[in-house]
Structure formats: structure tokens, C-alpha cells
Amino acid sequence: MSAHANPRTADGYIRVSRVAGREGESFISPEVQRDKIAGWAGLHDVEIVRWWEELDQSGRRRDRPMFQEALARCEAGETGGIVVARLDRFARSAVDALEAIKRLNEAGARLVSVEDNFDGSTPMGRFAIGILTLIAELELDRITESWAAAVQAAVARGVHISATPPAGYRRDEESGRLVVVEKDAAVIRELFHRRANGASWTSLADFLTESGVKSSKGGDAWSVMGVSRLIKNRVYRGEARSGAYVNPEGHEPIVTQAEFDAAQATRTVLTPRDGSVASLAMLGGLARCAGCGHTLKIAGGRTKNTGERYATYYCVGRYGSGYCSARATIRASYLDTYVEERVLATLTAGDGFVARALQQTDEINEAQRRLESAVHELTLYLQTDLIGTVGQDAFLAGVETRQGAVDQARAELERLRAQSLVLDQLPSGDLLESWSQLELQEKRTLMHGLLDRVVLRRDETKGRNPAPLSERTQIVLRGNVLLEPMGT
After folding, report:
1. How many CB atoms lie within 10 A of CB 459?
2. Counting Cβ atoms within 10 Å, is residue 232 exposed (0-12), middle (13-18) or buried (19+)?
3. How far apart are CA 209 and CA 207, in angstroms?
4. Taking 70 as the threshold, does the pLDDT of residue 454 lie above it?
5. Which of 207, 256, 199, 230 shows the shortest CA–CA distance to 424?
6. Residues in contact with 132: Cβ distance below 8 Å, sequence separation at least 6, in sequence order
7. What superfamily does domain 169-265 belong to in CATH?
């Protein structure tokens, strides 16, 4: 018993599911329950210091207020235990009963069931608790298996298992499947397109808020974190998912696979303030140092003769990982002009990269097959009861290996799809003709849609007969496609 509880005191707990209209052998009226509890207390010299009567309360509910208050009194040492007329008055489930009994034991209190001749403080009572533990484990296994089967069946039907439908969808009351709300879906499609083109999370959150799209919880304002979760949610690809169970065609998608992958692979294109040094550089965020791999910073300067401002890409040289031994630097206009010319030459050519990208359809199909095969193998492994044969550790290691194969196959497929998406990002013929009239920010946006990075090597000539940029520059398109090999 608890040091603060009198072992000769207890609370009497009475419960009936429904008072009116009840009859039959399983029904015990509140009066009969009280008499049984009081009779047991008199025989065992125990004082019932408080009575609890919960009427019209199901025993399946753990959150019964009086039941929880009685447990709390035991834990506080205000009473020595709880006495019930029959164990099913205490709880309907072995799992629930065992959980409450553990709380009582930890508090040094006891549970007594009069009709079942159960007293948790006696050797037989403790033996009964051990049996109850085994029953509870079996019950949990049964509940878990039933729930898993129900979830798997629901996902196979395309049911979205969530308290609320995601933004852009509503739930069909009969089937449980998601139905597109076209007004909101149009905004979400635009959201994915903007992210693919480098829009920042903050601007996307503002866009959703101003468009009047409500969150899944009905909120009017969107946070950066909320938008990030939306963009990464595969529900917009039409997937119904719960844990390991996935239905890739559970409902109507809002975005295509290519649109989804493009939004995942992109980076934020920072829009420089008008008049800032960064506004003079087209490749800000794309240019990297070949010596260390870090993104080149942008610094400003002025020409001696005219005082005109210009931007320079440069490597900081000192990082947390160490020093760069070959810091690259170049005036931004030189690198911007060179890369712009090379990209335009590729876009206007009738072969080259475009032709190679068109040939990647077979690679994408093969990558899709590899992913499906990896997912199938993982699913079969999970459905095969091998824990008893190989042991839990070995089984989990097998799951981890197969999940790794799935992740690797999915990453490769997304890489190829992002690479293929470059074709959709290519400027049209009309845009190419008017390229020279585009603002620098418009060119910057297009370059971020086309390029993954531009790697610059340091010029070792020290200003004398500088090495041509074709020997110092590596241009890599989205999808990690090399456009311009670096010279030797």
C-alpha cells in the first residue's frame, strides 16, 4: 500500500451502461452493486470512504470521468483502492483493465472484484493479474491484426485515412475516397508550378492565404511549414496511403508525377532587391567553386573610369569544413554571358541535349519497373511471418535492406523524371526570339528552371593570357545532365 493510503479504506465504484430499459442476467442495478460492495467491505473491515456511480457509461470508454477520478485518488494516496461488484464494471477490455491495474499497483493501491473473488493484493490476485496480462497481449495482437487488415482493405478501396481531407479535396461520404475541389485544386496546381520555378516558401504561403484556400484543419492562414508539408504530400499524386499500405491510384490526382517531382527537386530562387549587387548577377545560387564545391558569393565593385557598378562571383575560402585550396572568382557578367550563350546554343540546336533527353523515356520506364519490383519484394517480405524463424533483429535488418532498395529506386526514378522535365522548362521558339528583351530576373528564373549548377575553376594564369571559360566552366542541367565539360 501507499505510504499515504490507509489499507482499510477504499472507494466503491458502480457503473451501468444504460439505466432505462435494462433487464436480463448481465444487468446489475446500481443498488445491487452497492449492496455487494458494502457487504464485502463489512466482512473485510474496510471503510468505503467514497462512492462513485457512473450511469449510462460504457465500459469500453477509458476516459470515464468518475473512473479516472477514482484512479487519481488512489495515486494521490487518498484511498486504499477501488472495489467493484464485478470485474466488467471496472473495464470491458483486458487491455484497459490491465492498464488501470498497473496504475493501482504503482500507487500501492488494490482492485477488488466481489463476484469474481478477485483481490489484487493477494497471491491469487497477483496470479490472476498474470493471466490477465497474457489475455491482454492476445487481445492486443488480435486488435492489431484486425486493424491492419481493415487499413489495408480501406487503402485498397482508395480511402484516405485521416481525420480531415487535405486542402484541395473533400471526402465522399459514401466511399470515403477523396474528391477534387476544382476551385482549390487550380490554386494548388499553380502552387506546384511556382515551387518548381523556384518560388520561396514564404511567397507560396502568402499565395495560398491570399487565394482563400483553407488548410485541412480549416485555417485561413498558411505557414511556411504547412506549405512545405503540402508540396511533399503524395496525396496530390493520387496516392491513398497508410503506413506500408499504398494505393498509387486511390483517387484523382491534382498534379502529374512530373509536376510533383519538379517541385521536390527545385531550390528557392531568391529574388534580389532592386538596385542590390545580387540583382546584377544572373547565376546567383547556381555558380559553385570547383575547388571546394561551395556556392559562390556575390560582391560588388565599380569600374575606375565610369564608376559603373558590377557584380563578382567569389569563393569565401574559409568554411566550417576547412579551407578552399583553389578559390574561384570571376566578374559575374563574364560568366553569365558565357553560360547564357552556351544554353541558348543548345536550345536552338536540333540535336544534342534535347535529343538525348527524348531518348530517356525508356530509362524512365525501366526505373519505374525497378521501383515496382523493389516495392513488391518489400511487401512480400513484410507479409511473410519470418520473425519466429530468423528472429526479430534479423527480420528488421531484412526490412531495412529492402526499404533501402526501394528508396534508392525511387530516388533514381525521380532524378530521371526531373531530367526529363527540362523539356517542359525549355523556352518556346517565340521566347527564344525575344530572349534579348527579357529582364535579368526573367532570365534568372529560366536559368534556375534549366540548370542544376555551374561549376567554375580558378584561373591559374594570374591575369596573363587568362584561360578561356570553356576550359574552366562546367554547366550541369537539371537532372544532373552535363552540358559543358570542363577543360583539362
Report:
1. 17
2. exposed
3. 5
4. yes
5. 256
6. 94, 97, 98, 101
7. Putative Large Serine Recombinase; Chain B, Domain 2 (3.90.1750.20)
Residue 86 has which C-alpha cell? 464485478
Q: Cα(145)–Cα(151) distance, rounded to whole angstroms?
A: 10
422 three-state secondary structure: helix
User: Which residues are bridge partners to 454 per DSSP?
Assistant: 287, 475
| Homologous superfamily of the 9-141 domain (CATH) | Resolvase, N-terminal catalytic domain (3.40.50.1390)
Pairing of strands 451-456, 287-289: parallel
- Give the Cα separation of 177 and 249 in Å (integer): 11
Instruction: Extract the C-alpha cell encoding 65.
Output: 470521468
Contact 383, 375 (CB under 8 A): no
All residues at 6 or more sequence positions from 349 whose CB lies less than 8 Å from its CB, including other chains: none
CA–CA separation, 152 and 144 (whole Å): 12
Helix-strand-coil split of the chain, %, nearest 5:
50, 15, 35
pTM reported for the whole predicted model: 0.43
* pLDDT tens readout for residues 291-325: 999 999 999 888 888 888 899 999 998 877 788 99
CA distance linking residue 446 with residue 274, whole number of Å = 19
Write down the domain spans for the chain.
9-141, 169-265, 277-348+437-484, 355-425
Indicate if the pLDDT at residue 184 is higher than 90: yes
Burial (CB count <10 Å: 0-12, 13-18, 19+), residue 189:
middle
- The neighbouring-strand residues paired with 295 are 288
